[in-house]
Structure formats: C-alpha cells, structure tokens
Amino acid sequence: MSTLPKTRLALLSLACLLLQSAPAAARYAAIVIDADTGRVVHETESTQRWYPASLTKVMTIYLTLSALEHGRLRLTDTVFASKHAASQPPSKLGLRTGQSLTVEQAIMAVTTRSANDAAVVLAEKLGGSESNFATMMTQQARTLGMYNSSFENASGLPNDGQISSARDLALLSAALIRDFPQHYHYFSATEFNYKGRVMPNTNRILKSYPDADGLKTGFTCGSGYNLIASAKRNGHRLIGVLLGAHSSGERFEQMGNLLDMGFANSEKGLFGEHISQLKDYSALPPPFQLSSNRCAGSAEQMGADSGSSRYEPIRINAPYNSRREKLTQLAQAKPQSRSSIWTVSMGSYPRKIDADVNLQRARNALGTLAKTGHAGIVKTKSKGGTAWRAQWTGLQQDDSQDFCRRLRAKHMDCSASPQPRQTLAAATSPAKPIRRISHRRS
Fold it and tell me: Lowest-confidence range among 6-15, 66-75, 186-195, 252-261?
C-alpha cells in the first residue's frame, strides 16, 4: 500500500482534531455593547460557552429586583439563613443557621461582597429551594434571549450545568439596568457596612476606571477571572464583559482597555450588528480556563486536560491617548490649589450611630461620586452638648456641588463650604495606614 493515503489520512485526522478543539480552547471571551441600542462595539468569542462563576449573581439579583417591583418582596423584609445557606463556601458573609438579615442587606452582600450564603438566602426566599430558583433563573434567561445559558445554583459555584457566555451576560446586564434603574446603585456601592464592619466592594473597576459605575466580578478555576463592567461617559453607557483572565489584575486592566476601545469606536460611529444577531450553533462544552496552573487538580476532577503551565496574557489594545491617560495627565499638570478645597456637611446628630447611618445613606445615594474626597464623622461640642457631623472633605468646588445636587435629590441635607485653612494640612497630609480586611477573591 502506498504511504501517500496514510499521510493524507493522518493530516486529515489532525485537522479534524484541531477544528474540534479550537473553540473549547478559546483564550478569552469578551464583548462591549452600547447599552441603549444593544449594538455591538467589539466582541471576541462572545458566544463561546463559559462558566460564569459569580457573574451568575447578576441573574439572582435580577429576579430579586423583579420580585420587589411586583410587590412579592420588600427591602425591609426579614429573611433567614437555612442550614444549606449557612454551609456555602466562601466568598460569604458568614451567616449562621437561623440568622436573620433584611432583603436589602442580602442584596448588598451579594453585589459588593459576592456572598454565596446571602445569594442562597434570596434564592430560597423566592423559590422555596435553591434548585427551584435555579429553574426560575433558566426560564428568565430564555425570556431575555440568553440562549447559551442554564443555571443550577444561585451563586455560580462550580457545576457542569452552570453555563453562560459573554453575549448572554451582556444581554442580562443591559436588561437589569433598563428594567430596574432605580436599584442599579446596589452595583455601584464601593463598600458594605454590616454589623459594624465596613467591607469594600470586590469590584476594583469602580476605582480603577474613571467612568465605571457597576457591575460584578466572578472567579472559579473553571471560569478564570471574570468581570462585567458598565461605564457612562457624556450620557453614553457601555457594558463590557470579559471572561477568562488569568489573574484579578489582568481582568481589571483589560476591561479598562475594552471600555476605552468601546468609547473610541462608538464616538466614531463604529457599531456592529445588534447583540441579538450574534449566533452560535456549537454544542461544545466551556473551556476549563485555569487548568494549566494551580487549578490543575480541579480541572482533572472535572475531566479537563491539565495541559502545560504556560499561558499567554490577554492583550487588548486600547486606543492611543485614552481617557484614563488624559485624566492622569491633567492631574499631573494641574495640581489642586489649597484655595479650591471644599467640604460637604450632611447635618449634625446627637448620637454617633445616627451620623453613621446618614453617612451610609449618603454613600448609597452618591454611587461612584462617593469615591471622591474623604468621608468621615466629626465630633463637635457646643453649649448644647456633644454632636456628631457626617461630612466629606477634600473636594473640588464642582464636586461639592455635584454632591449636594445628588443628595438633595434624595431628600437629604447637604451644605458645601470652603474648607478652613487650618484643616487643609490634615486633609492633604498622608493618611494613617488603614488596616485591610482580608477577603476571598470573587
């Protein structure tokens, strides 16, 4: 027999193998869409099936907000942690069996801390059981056109049947912002104050990207480091989804590049098709993204190939002279003058706890503005006794005016005034080291 047919057969077999394995080995998946029109600004493997990890919780909160809007639930309702909810692995709030919290506290725990136990508490409240709630999640996904998605739990913990895609998660995020704009601020909060503990949001894009004002992080060994982010510039909102980064820092850096690219393209009118037109008829399973490093053991347990220990970093090219670079240049070129420092006061209270509550309300009302300046409680004394004042210091005059407009719109007291010179040194001097609260990745 001639060797030529054997060679051709071997080459054909190799080609078939490569064609079959290429989609499952996608380096990453990403999409950026215009939130108002749904048109695609950029996408890479956006219909590739992927493990969503804690991005699942966006759907959990979507159904929770839907229940609020339809009167089936109230923010002040008390919910209780079952044994199943309390047994969830980190990230978690640390609820004990039978422990109670309000619906609003559970929402905040999910959106800021990605708390698995709080997500299950909400799921059991709405669905009776987490499995029933997962069925509701999948049904809602079909209603929204998320044809790549199916859910088995409310948290995103590893499960072979817990699947989504960048396209589907962008659709979900756009629906959440469109359907529940009055509740979107829960995804913008930079911290969560629970039982005297102030816990920072795990989503660092809120601080690293100037125009970002939400949404959610996610991580498992199967998914890699995932991120949904929404940013608004000059009244124009974009939603970006990035799946499969190999580190937390990589997902935030590359999301910044995605959003920069998105704003640059949208300003030029470079839009693609509507997101609903993106189609994928592949039935291949999601890649196990971190099978090549410290997660190799988990990969083998799920039947994935552990592969090699090498991987290439994601490189998304941001447009030259991006907005972040411009802001950095402006900050370096125009240092703040002392005379421009302003303080915003939000009333005085006879009890410190009242000032603390008011300060938290202000944080929630301000959203991303809360990242500007320095918030605090000041103790004052007068003939009438001791009082506690909630305030923000270290602001520019324009910022202080924006603060008061936002707070007054929420029927909160606010007054802005130039900061006294004797307090400027304290406001501009290096702050004391802050004790970091350790927390698990999400």
Answer: 6-15
Where along the chain do the CATH 3.40.710.10 domains lie? 27-292
Residues 180 and 67: beta-carbon distance below 8 Å: no
Higher pLDDT pick, 426 / 68: 68
Whether the pLDDT of residue 380 is over 50: the answer is: yes
Q: Residues of CATH 3.30.70.1070 domain(s) within the chain? A: 338-428
Active site (annotated) includes residue 114: yes
Identify the active-site residue in 46, 91, 114, 292.
114
Catalytic residue among 46, 57, 291, 292: 57
> Residue 68 pLDDT > 50, yes or no?
yes
At 279, phi and psi to the nearest 5?
-120, 150
pLDDT at 14 over 80: no
- pLDDT band at residue 325 using 50, 70 and 90 as cut-offs: low
Instruction: Give 344-377 pLDDT, tens digit per residue.
Output: 888 888 887 778 778 888 887 887 777 777 888 8
Q: What are the φ and ψ backbone dihedral angles of 237, each rounded to 5 degrees?
A: -105, 135
The answer to whether 116 and 155 have CB atoms below 8 angstroms apart is yes
**Span 146-175, pLDDT tens digits:** 999 999 999 999 999 999 999 999 999 999
* Residue closest to 148 by CA, chosen among 232, 77, 45: 45
State the pLDDT confidence band at 141, using cuts at 50, 70 and 90: very high
Which residue among 46, 54, 164, 165 is the active-site one? 54
Virtual torsion, Cα 69, 72, 75, 77, nearest 10 deg: 170
Structure-block tokens of residue 143: 């209603």
Q: Which CATH superfamily is domain 338-428 in?
A: Sporulation related repeat (3.30.70.1070)
For 311, list phi and psi in degrees, rounded to 5. Answer: -150, 155
Region 27-292: CATH code: 3.40.710.10
The yes-or-no answer on residue 57 being catalytic is yes
- Rounded distance between C-alpha atoms, residue 74 and residue 98, angstroms: 20
Taking Cα atoms as reference points, which of 55, 103, 51, 110 lies closest to residue 76? 103
Per-position b or e across 38-73, b if 16+ CB within 10 A of its CB:
bebbbbbbbbbbbbbbbbbbbbbbbbbbbbbeeeeb
